[in-house]
């Protein structure tokens, strides 16, 4: 799992649990397997990291 320095591991698991609780409340169910939620969070971290990298490149003068 690559968190890319975006969030800590404890924040990752806390976020996963919060999303699971929200889904449980809205769907009136009890999620046991958080792997799909974890996959979603990892994908969003990748997107956030890429956006951050692009912004850093633009700030530092872009491609030459």
Could you name the key traits of this structure?
64 residues; mainly alpha; single chain
- Taking all Cα atoms into account, the compactness measure Rg is 16 Å
Spans of 5+ residues with little confidence (pLDDT < 50)? none
- Helix/strand-derived category reads mainly alpha
Helix content percent band = 55-70%
Q: What pattern of helices and strands is seen along the backbone?
A: HH
Q: How much beta, percentage-wise?
A: under 5%
Average pLDDT score: 90
Tally of individual helices? 2
Main beta-sheet annotation: none
Number of domains: 1
Q: How many extended strands?
A: 0
Shape: elongated
Distance from N terminus to C terminus (CA atoms, Å) equals 33 Å
Describe the overall structure.
69% of the residues lie in helices and 0% in strands. The chain is elongated, with a radius of gyration of 16 Å. The longest helix is centred in the C-terminal third of the chain and has 25 residues, at 35-59. The chain has helices at residues 9-27, 35-59. The chain has one domain (9-59). It has two helices and no strands.
List the SSEs and their pairings:
Blueprint: H1 9-27, H2 35-59
């Amino acid at each position: 799992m690559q968190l890319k320095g975006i969030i800590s591991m404890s924040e990752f698991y806390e976020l996963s649990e919060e999303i699971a609780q929200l889904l449980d409340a809205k769907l009136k169910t009890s999620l046991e397997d958080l792997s799909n939620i974890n996959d979603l969070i990892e994908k969003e971290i990748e997107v956030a990291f890429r956006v951050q990298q692009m912004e850093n490149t633009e700030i530092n003068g872009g491609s030459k």
